[in-house]
Every structure is written in structure tokens, then in C-alpha cells.
Write a structure and sequence with these properties.
The structure is a single chain. By secondary structure, the protein is an alpha/beta fold. 54% of the residues lie in helices and 7% in strands. The chain contains 11 helices and 4 strands; from the N terminus they run H-E-H-E-H-E-H-H-E-H-H-H-H-H-H. It has a 4-stranded parallel beta sheet with strand order 3-2-1-4, sandwiched between helices. The longest helix is centred in the middle third of the chain and has 24 residues. The protein is globular and about 55 Å long. The protein starts with a helix and ends in a 14-residue tail after the last helix.
């Protein structure tokens, strides 16, 4: 794993150099994936990396976890609270659609959550522009395969260094890098709403998805869930579609 980490760090350095930029930035959520990326970019660019904590009507505990990550790797950081910005944007949209009589309450919670993710993406790119950095994403192989990320939200990044690593491998990497055990052991959550966890929302576990990606046998029920998620989210793994040349 140390060898893989060294290769990832070198790859990040090369990609930033190829882009003619100065360093790298990541949004630090307090989860294991962003913790690993924060450690990686700090190793790649000790003086030119930054972690951005972006609470948005979030559980205060998430910010505490994020600060643990910052302290563990020593990366430069800033905190930008997006709660008020989200309220202004989302309530304006809700007001206009309600006036048209077309507001869909059934999809509102997901729309709210995705708006938060896209606000964070917008914020990261604005800060990245300030420093001349590339935006580094946190999606692992399980999330990428199942499409468990917000299109143009946490999926809107320049680099995805963890995309070939299962969740289990990310945990192993976290231990080697020195990510705090409190981060490694807590249930994965996108923090979309109170009590939300990734595995409850997906209907299967990361262990099952990891086994599936490694070609191992898993229960048919879990296989169907994973296949269905992969098929339904194919558009997320593509650039915007264009028509063929007529």
C-alpha cells in the first residue's frame, strides 16, 4: 500500500504540472475518502494544498471530524459556511415553482441534498481559481460503479485518485496514511440529511460492492441492486452527450 500511495502522490503531482497549475484542493467532509485525499495532496504539495470545510446545514459533528482530518495531516485549511447561501437559492426556486403550481414535494429532499453538493463544487472551483489549483475528488471504485455521487456535485472534479480502489482498500490506505481511527470506523455518510448513511440509502453494503467488483460471489439480491444502480447512473460517468454528426 505504501508503494501505491507513492505512485498516487506522483500521479497527482504530474497531473497538476500537466495542467500548468500550482497545487491541489479538496473538500474535507470528515469522511474517510476525503480524509485520504487530504493526506495525499498534502504529501504531493506540502506548501500548495488546501482542504476546504463547507458546512451546509450540517451536523456540527461533521465539522469536528473534518478538523480531526486537518490536524492529522497538517494541511492548510479554510471553512466556508454555505448554509445561508443554500437557503437563499433553494427557497427562491421553491417559491417560483410553487407559484406555478409545479413544485414536487416528493423529490424535494433529494433536490435539496444535490443542491448542497453542487454549491460545494462551485465553492471549491472558486477557491481553486484563487490559488491556481486542481480540484481533487474523493469518489472510490464502489461509488463510481454505482453512481453514488452527485452529478456536477462531488462528481464535478478534475482528478479522481481513488476511483480504482475499493472501499476496503481506501480503509487500508487510511490506516497507512495516519487518518484518525474515529474517521476510519464511523459509518460512511454523505451527510445529506439527519441520520442518513450510505449503506441504508443504497440498500446494500460497501463490502458487498467491493466483493462484486473483485468478481466474488454475492447474494443475488445484492447483485441486482448493484446492477440496477450501475445501469441507472451510466449518464453520471460520461461527459454531456452530443448527437452523432448528421
Amino acid at each position: 500500500m505504501e508503494e501505491k500511495i507513492a505512485k498516487l502522490v506522483q500521479w497527482i503531482q504530474e497531473k497538476v504540472k500537466d495542467a500548468g497549475l500550482n497545487g491541489a484542493i479538496v473538500g474535507v467532509s470528515g469522511g474517510i475518502d476525503s480524509a485520504v485525499v487530504a493526506h495525499l495532496i498534502k504529501r504531493a504539495f506540502p506548501e500548495d494544498s488546501i482542504g476546504v470545510i463547507m458546512p451546509c446545514k450540517s451536523d456540527p459533528k461533521d465539522q469536528e471530524y473534518a478538523l480531526e482530518v486537518i490536524e492529522s495531516c497538517g494541511i492548510s485549511h479554510t471553512t466556508i459556511d454555505l448554509s445561508e447561501t443554500h437557503t437563499v437559492l433553494f427557497s427562491a426556486m421553491e417559491k417560483q415553482l410553487k407559484e406555478k403550481g409545479e413544485w414536487n414535494e416528493e423529490t424535494a429532499r433529494l433536490g435539496d441534498a444535490n443542491t448542497r453538493a453542487r454549491l460545494r463544487m462551485t465553492t471549491l472551483y472558486a477557491v481553486a481559481n484563487n490559488y491556481g489549483y486542481l480540484v481533487v475528488g474523493t469518489d472510490n471504485a464502489a461509488e463510481w460503479h454505482t453512481g453514488y455521487f452527485t452529478k456536477y456535485g462531488d462528481g464535478g472534479v478534475d482528478l479522481v485518485p481513488l476511483v480504482n480502489f475499493t472501499k476496503g482498500e481506501v480503509r487500508e490506505m487510511a490506516k497507512v496514511l495516519g487518518v484518525p481511527e474515529s474517521i476510519i470506523s464511523k459509518p460512511p455518510s454523505a451527510g445529506l440529511w439527519e441520520g442518513q448513511t450510505d449503506e441504508n440509502e443504497m440498500g446494500t453494503t460497501y463490502n458487498m460492492i467491493d466483493s462484486y467488483l473483485k468478481g466474488e460471489e454475492i447474494p443475488e439480491k445484492d447483485k441486482q441492486i448493484i446492477d440496477r444502480m450501475h445501469k441507472r447512473t451510466e449518464h453520471k460517468r460520461q461527459l454531456a452527450y452530443g448527437p452523432p454528426k448528421f
